[in-house]
């Protein structure tokens, strides 16, 4: 009462079970359940304090998760934070086998627990739970920007790796159990390797922005990319920048300010792609009389308005067939995705109307598409020492590398060449937009349900190891070995290729 009267208005109580046996065992404290629940009720009885319950999900309690939420719901709790256990401290070093579990085992219990989020006035938050286990409950996917807090908590580790190549002190077997494996070992490590090897396939720079230092400029110019993405106010700025940047052999894609003249484009032989983002430029370039050099492709950044404008002009799309790419942009925030993203149905219509889609999975487009430009070094990522800046890298990861697949993608013939969709597209439209295909690109009629595939992956983990399974579900960059490693697993008697 004194705390409430002094201004306390919200409190979180960590209760990892709905019985004394579970709570006391997990906390190592006899009486922890009784005193925890009593304290929670005391807070509620003040009538001034909002009380929520944190549950760390682990091997001892995941099968009880629906009952845990029900128990506290019946005691008046309406907000729950479900935290996936992380591989640190004594919990991993001494109690790994009694606390860590296969997420595929937990799928049926998760789904029964998540239903409570649909009750009026109930809020469920998830922390560090791999997003592919939230199919049908995409509203529970953790805001990607919480990655900043995760990396900030281990800043000395991550900056030590980016600047000196010293692997984080947690690196090793913990990685297979860690929520940060995607942005850390599976992406940050290859990024630093590409930076050191001067081998980024894509580099990006805006002519209006200065390098952080001469060292940053040197590292950028020493890259040997396949493509340079160059933003500039006009063509004269492009012509001035290209000789200074060198990057010999790299094809050039340019994005100019809206309305910028294209007069003299033929004098820039390395430019083979123009990126535009407005209906006005689309009308000027695609419908107007201005003729682009035959080799130049127009890449148009799609949003709802531009997609509708394109679909209303079938003759224009036909005339530009083979030279028009519709790029689905990624977004930092869910609100941006909801405001901008064309629907999956609209994307498929565009693909069938001669627009070559980019950054759209083949199963959504219905035809073959261009992949997203992964492993792209933006000049702004480099700090004064010419190393990757941690905070800028995390932001870049969210926008360019935070992708996921459905567990059902395990059955797709293209699983090893597809990254799935960016996290905010999935939060917007759901994992159901991803549909497994056969080798001919046709949707599988017997792909199996989310729960079926979780059962199969559980068996695969037991037989062949966690890392092979994680490659399938998108936690790591997929490669051809996945197909070999898991090729003999069957689902309901049917062989999985």
Quick summary:
The protein has 497 residues and is α/β, with parallel strands linked by helices. 39% of the residues lie in helices and 14% in strands.
Written overview of the protein:
By secondary structure, the chain is α/β, with parallel strands linked by helices. Helix content is 39%, strand content 14%. The chain has 23 helices and 16 strands. α7 runs antiparallel to α21, α8 packs antiparallel against α19 and α21 runs antiparallel to α22. The longest helix is centred in the last third of the chain and has 15 residues.
**What's the end-to-end separation, in Å?**
63 Å
Taken from the alpha-carbon principal axes, the silhouette is: globular
What level of helicity do the residues show?
Answer: 25-40%
Looking across the biggest beta sheet, what order are the strands in?
Answer: 11-10-9-8-7-6-5-12
How large is the radius of gyration?
25 Å
Biggest sheet character: 8 strands, parallel
% residues in beta strands:
5-15%
* Class from helix and strand fractions: alpha/beta
Low-confidence stretches: 471-497
Instruction: Please report the number of helical segments.
Output: 23
Could you tell me the mean pLDDT? 91
Oligomeric organization of the protein chains:
single chain
> How many β strands by DSSP?
16
């Amino acid at each position: 009462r004194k705390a409430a009267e002094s201004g306390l208005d919200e409190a979180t109580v960590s209760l990892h079970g709905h019985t004394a046996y579970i709570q006391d065992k997990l906390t190592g404290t006899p009486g922890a359940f009784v005193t925890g629940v009593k304290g929670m009720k005391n807070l509620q009885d003040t009538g001034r304090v909002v009380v929520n319950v944190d549950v760390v999900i682990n091997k001892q309690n995941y099968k009880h998760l629906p009952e845990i939420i029900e128990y506290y719901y019946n005691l008046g709790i309406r907000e729950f934070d479900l935290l996936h256990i992380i591989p640190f401290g004594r919990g991993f070093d001494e109690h790994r086998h009694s606390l860590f579990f296969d997420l595929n085992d937990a799928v049926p219990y998760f789904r029964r627990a998540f239903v409570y989020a649909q009750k009026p006035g109930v809020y469920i938050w998830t922390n560090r739970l791999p997003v592919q286990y939230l199919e049908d409950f995409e509203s529970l996917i953790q805001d990607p920007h919480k990655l900043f807090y995760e990396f900030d908590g281990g800043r000395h580790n991550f900056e030590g790796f980016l600047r000196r190549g010293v692997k984080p002190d947690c690196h090793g077997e913990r990685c297979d159990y860690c929520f940060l494996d995607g942005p850390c070992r599976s992406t940050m490590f290859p990024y630093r390797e590409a930076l050191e090897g001067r081998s980024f396939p894509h580099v990006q720079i805006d002519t209006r922005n200065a390098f952080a230092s001469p060292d940053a400029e040197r590292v950028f110019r020493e890259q040997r990319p396949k493509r340079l993405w160059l933003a500039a106010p006009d063509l004269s700025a492009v012509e001035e920048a290209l000789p200074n940047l060198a990057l010999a052999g790299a094809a050039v894609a340019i994005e100019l300010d809206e309305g910028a003249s294209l007069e003299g484009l033929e004098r820039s032989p390395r430019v083979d792609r123009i990126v535009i983002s407005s209906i006005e430029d689309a009308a000027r370039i695609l419908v107007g009389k201005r003729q682009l050099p035959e080799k130049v492709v127009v890449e148009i950044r799609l949003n709802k308005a531009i997609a509708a404008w394109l679909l209303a002009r079938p003759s224009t799309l036909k005339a530009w067939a083979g030279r028009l790419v519709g790029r689905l942009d990624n977004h930092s925030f869910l609100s941006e995705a909801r405001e901008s993203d064309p629907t999956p149905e609209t994307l498929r219509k565009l693909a069938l109307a001669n627009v070559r889609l980019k950054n759209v999975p083949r199963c959504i487009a219905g035809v073959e598409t261009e992949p997203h430009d992964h492993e792209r070094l933006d000049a702004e990522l480099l700090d004064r020492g010419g190393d990757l800046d941690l905070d800028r890298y995390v932001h870049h990861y969210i926008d360019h590398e935070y992708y996921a697949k459905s567990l059902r993608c395990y059955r797709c013939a293209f699983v090893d060449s597809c990254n799935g969709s960016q996290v905010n597209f999935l939060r917007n439209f759901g994992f159901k937009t991803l549909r497994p295909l056969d080798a001919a690109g046709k949707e599988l009629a017997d792909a199996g349900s989310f729960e079926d595939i979780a059962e199969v992956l559980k068996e695969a983990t037991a037989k062949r190891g966690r890392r092979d399974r994680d490659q399938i579900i998108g936690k790591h960059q997929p490669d051809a070995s996945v197909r070999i490693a898991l090729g003999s697993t069957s689902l309901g008697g049917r062989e999985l290729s």
